[in-house]
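Fold Annotation — chain and its backbone
Next Lines — sequence and tokenised fold

***
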Amino acid sequence: MDVVSDAISAVRLGRPSSDRVRVGGTWCVRLDPYEGAGFHVVLAGGCWLLADGGEPVFLAPGDAVLLPHGAGHVLADSPVDAAAAARAVPLDRIREGRAGRIAPPERGAVELLCGKYRLDRSRVHPLLAELPGVVHLPAGAHGELRSAITLLSGEVDARRPGSSIALPSLLDLLLVYMVRASVAGAAAGSWSAALGDPVTAAALQAMHGDPAAPWSVDRLAAEAGVSRPTLVRRFTPLVGRPPMAYLTWWRLTLAATRLRDTPDSLAAIATRVGYGSPYALSHAFVREFGTTPGRYRAQMAATPS
């Protein structure tokens, strides 16, 4: 797999959820902080978003916004400050018609696709961790994202044949496109620079493509077509750790993901992530996560999905 796909797969839990919300008139709603990532897509009309501790952002028709760290936020029909945000009502009250009003398809109505992804925050990849609290993706700036939104808007009511399968897949596709666009647009981010640097990107691609291979700094340097010192000099400041330290961290992250998501034995997982024995993997796992693989698996199984 590639770095972006792996970063998302390692933290995704359960199934994404979404809902189409249509509202008109004067309204101001709050969404509490969430243990995951939230998103909104403006299907019609326009509105304002104010994240906790942030600045108001206007969302025009066709815009998407990703809140990768699950920040609490307010959506409103007009610019909103902290005082107005304090008077916001929960979004569920708007949905149920107890505050504001659910607007029929009429001029001036705002239609939103609101959703969220549950994430395991214990192992967030640094690529995702460095994203800002609010990522605004204007309409028309990202063609692939626009296509995904068009497809998703046709499935979100779950009334068409096959929607129960198509909808979660399209929501996953939407997340990939939003993260991809976020990373591409983060000119100041170290991971944007890492993926844009051909030497670092080649080493990362090699490790993510075959994490169980017997990699060494020399082999990774050969994959990148540079000398060992050149690889270390370019890789370390961009990724935040030397090549072999990153590989160890990624292998253990993969092991944790398989403990969480599969019934595979520790021996099978060890082979898959590049450890010579279950004992070697267990020792490294305890050092990284502070608990044994068995206890970790039991803990994750007891966590609601």
Q: What stands out?
A: The chain is about 50% helix and 20% strand. The two ends are 24 Å apart (CA to CA).
